[in-house]
Every structure is written in structure tokens, then in C-alpha cells.
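Re: weekly structure request thread

Next one in the queue (415 aa):
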Amino acid sequence: METAFYLIMNILRVYAIYLWVNVFIEKKEVNRRIFFIAYISFYAVNSLLYLVYRSTIINIATNVIPIFLITFLYKARLGKRIFVTVLIYAIAMFIESAFYALFRVLNFNRIIVYSGFAPDIILFVTAMFAQAVLKNKFKTFTSVKAIYYIVIVFLPIGSIVIGYFTMGDLDMETLVVASILLLINYLVFYFFDELSTSYKYKYEASLLQMQNEIQLANYNEISKNYQESQKIIHDIKKHLYTLSQLSSINKDKADNYRKIIEKSMDSLIIGFSCTNQILSIVMSQKISVAENKGIKVDTDVEDLTLEFIDDLDITAIFANLWDNAIEASGLVNIKSRYIDFSMRQVNGFIVINMSNQCSENLNFKNGKLISTKKNHKGIGLSIVSTAVEKYQGLFVTEYKNNIFTVEITIPVPIS
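Done, posted below.
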């Protein structure tokens, strides 16, 4: 019975180690069967040698060596492979040691400790949480009710408490209870992971919709400009003739007429253009919206490809920044409306600065700006923050003297 109990607990432990490895390093493009065979082999070797020899040294070796060998299925340098191997084993040992210490101090139920039930559950749960936090799953999980968070925190604790009161001996009843509790933990966290993934897809779909709307507005503007250009081109000879006649009669009238023609020509030019097509479209459309609302726009943008940033994230960052600035600027006196925007590369970092005049009644909660729109959650800047953090960047806001300022710093990956 003790052997059966250990074999079941070790399944969860090996799976938890699999999750921990995925937290720290990225998989190679390898067939899933190879990963499955690798971890099954790890489980078989680890379980067999532990049951046969019951040696501490062999137990350490059958944990550390297989984990290190498995890291070769992932993208990492040798130093990082060694570091990840040691770190994962250290995490597992810390959790086990913590429970052994609790057993000694509190006379905790020895079955759920020495069988590995409690330590393995906690190892599994911490791996799931580490994946959620480090891979930004929580950040796109903002619409989920608080009860889900309560469940995933309470479940492992509740399982250990149930084990404490029900696991008296290593018998069939204890084995069944432990197996059911382990399965419940796995299924709940599996569904949580699926749910968080679905919210991530929903988040990406909303960005795609935003991107499509911006592109449509931009294409409509291009179509409008094209039609206007056809009119001007059609009449250009007439304009030139009129201008030449005026220049010989009245130079002042000729200059005014020339300025009218130039203004008409300038209106046909797209407001912003750079190497990155998505950024050009977003910036052009948002600048057009801002200027139509009487907002003075000043841009100082270095032509950067931003090729390491995904198109959806470019939309998330720049569209939401501009929407936030346009919304805030629209609440102040039209004479005070302005948006200053700059982007440049400084010492291996993309630095983005944006500032605009704001009204005095901005709402802040826990240091975060709350939208002035009715029934609006004001998640625009939080989306920007999430996208920036994805690239290990910094997102800083400041509100002073009715001026709202945003500064974004994103490191440029070394090729």
C-alpha cells in the first residue's frame, strides 16, 4: 500500500516539475511524444530507484540528473540549464522541509507529510501560480469574478485539511481519498488555466477588432483624400493660370491664392508615416481624430522598425495611449488642448513620452487613473502596462499641475 501511495503521489510531483521547467525556459520545436517519453522515463527511473534503494544520495541524483537532461528539450544555455535544475530541486526541497518542520512543531498528520501528499500538492499549486504570474495570465484575467481566485487559493489548503482528518493509515481508504483530492486539484487548476487562456484569446480578439477599426478609418481617410486629390488635379491648370494672372496684377492676392492651394495640397498628405506600417496607420488615424477635436498635436518620432514588438501589442500600446490622451484633452477648454508625443531610441532602449492637458477632476484609485466615461472601467492604460511588461519594459505615469504624462521604456533585444 505504501508503494502504491508513493507511485500516485510521484505522478503529481513529476507533473509539477514539468510545470516549473516550463516557467523558466521555453520549449524547443520538438514532437510532443518526445516530451511525454522524457517525463515518463523521469518518473519511472525516479520511482524505481527510490523504491529499490531508499537512499538519500540516489534520490537526489534521480531528481537532479533527469531534470538537467530534460532541459535539453528546451531553449537555454548551459549555465541557465544548471541554474534552473538546481532552482527547481531547491524549491521542491524547501516545500518538503517546511512540511517536515511543521510536522515536528505542530505534530502534523505524518501520513499527509511523509507520503508526499501535502508537499506535492503545494509544489503543483505553486508551479501553476508561477506560470500564471510570470506568463502574464493573470493580467488578461481581469474580468473573472473574485470567487474563482478564492477557489484556487482555498482548494489546495482545503485538500490538505481534509487529508489531515481522513488519512489515518496507509490503507486503501486513504489511497482513494488522496487520489480523489489530487484529481480534483488537477482538474480545477486545469480548468482555471483553460479559462485564463480563453480570456487571453478574448483580449487578443478585442485588440484585433480595434486594429481593424483603425485600419478601416484610415482607409476611409485615404479614399476621401484620393477623391479630393482628383478634384485638385483636375483643376490644377486652372489654378496655375489664375495664379500667374494674379501675380502680374496683385502680388498680395497671388500669395493668398497660393497659400490656399498649398493648404489644399497639404490636407491630402497622410498625417504620419514611418517604416512600421501598423504604427503608421494607428498614429495617422489617432492624429486625425485628435486634430478634428481641436487638439494641437506635436510629434517628434524617430523612424524605428519596432520589429521585435508584435503588431497586436503595437496597437495595444499606441492606440490606447492616444485614446486616453484624446479623451482627457476633450474635457478641457479648446484653447488648452494639446498632445505632445515623442519616441526615440536611447542607449538600447525605446523611450516613448506622451503628455496632455487634463481637467482637475481626474479620478485615481490605488494610484491608477479611472476613466471619466460612464460605466467604463478605464482599462486602457492597464492594457498598455500589460503589453509593455511583456517586453520587460517600464510604464510610468505622472499627474501634476493638470498635466498627465506617460513614459514608456522598452529594452531593444540584442540580436
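Strands lie at 26-27, 74-75, 296-301, 338-346, 349-357, 363-365, 368-370, 394-400, 403-411. The domain at 272-415 is CATH 3.30.565.10 (Heat Shock Protein 90).
Next request, please.
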